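Subgroup meeting minutes
Present: P.N., E.W., G.H.
Scribe: E.W.

1. P.N. recapped why we're keeping a running log of single-chain structure predictions: easier to compare across weeks, and new members can see raw inputs and outputs side by side.
2. G.H. added today's entry (407 aa).
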Amino acid sequence: MAWAVKAITGRPRRSGWARIRRNTSVPSISGSETSNNTSAGFETVGNFSTPDAGITAPFLLRNGCPGGASSAQPGPGYGAVPVGSYGAQTLLLSQRTYAGATCGSTMPGACAESAPVTWDVVVDAQTPVSPAPPVISAPRDPTSSPDPAENVFQVSGHGTPTTVQACDQGGAGAAGVISDSLHVDTDGNISGSVVLTSGTAVDPNPGWHKLSLSQDGCTTTSKPVFISVGVRPPTVQFPRSSGAVDCSAGGVLTQLTARGTLPYAPSTFGPLIVAEELGHLALGLIAAQISVDPTPQADGSFGFQAVIPLGLLGGLPLGKHLLYFFQAPPPPANATQAEIDAHYRAFASIAATPTSRVAIAVPPLPLASPLGTGALPSVGPLLLSVANCALSAGAGCALPRADVSQS
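Output recorded in log:
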């Protein structure tokens, strides 16, 4: 860094700075060492003048070096030699006393050239480093908006202080984002809103989205957020939510038949899924036997019947259960188990009505008299002996650790 000082006031009139790679020191004629500080081709140099004839300094070091510096463009004179292609190359390095490929001088010693040095190198293509993807913090994942008119969502997140855009990998693809008004401040905070497409009465696919943020043209994106707009869930007509399964007829109950309607044809949106809430990301998918009437009803819906297995062997066990009834397309090909779990969890968020998110209770079987009759003997003790339901299911069995009352 250097200054030109005004003789009268002692204030700097002109200054400059340079970022230079220091070369090895070489001895001077006087015997002391001097350094080659110009390092041809590798320096970054800036030259700045005071704006008011020395009253104000060109810049202050405490504020850092100002912009406007420049660097020389490396070329063959600096050892920057282009190669024809990527891959293995053999470079021949030599030193000449002349410039260019040939020497036209006739003076003795003017066209000298050293012996070449062979250098085998491999030239690889340099891929630009992609920036770290931004992080999206709102909307939350998943988000469901049953009203197709409620399609504007506030977005927040964090990234680098550069441009940002909304990307969609949902049912409508990139066309799912109608518009966005996102901006990033100098600290990388992202804010704004997006307008998304909505599902229709016959086609829900424009209404489900996997919204993410990107700062490199959607090449790398944030973790997506599932959003549904105007997508209707199925309607379960039986059983009603919070209703108990009727076991009054006695015997072993092995199945529960649910009936209702689908708003969309399975070929348009996907099959009916019946899943149980387990309290974590993965739902308990139920192997129900589902049949759908292909003929639409007057309102365009499709009737369905789902036979849900009950019991200890692969069915819903005794107790309370929260079931989701929803439609969903198949998970992406080659999806991991975690991605499959997130896929079904996202579409289950559409089942947010009392007729699509149904709570049922499977009660234990009534404990019948082991005598097989309602008449009690007139004399002698009454002995009650029942078997474990896990070993012998039926009316005359009891569950381990269950409460037994008499009346």
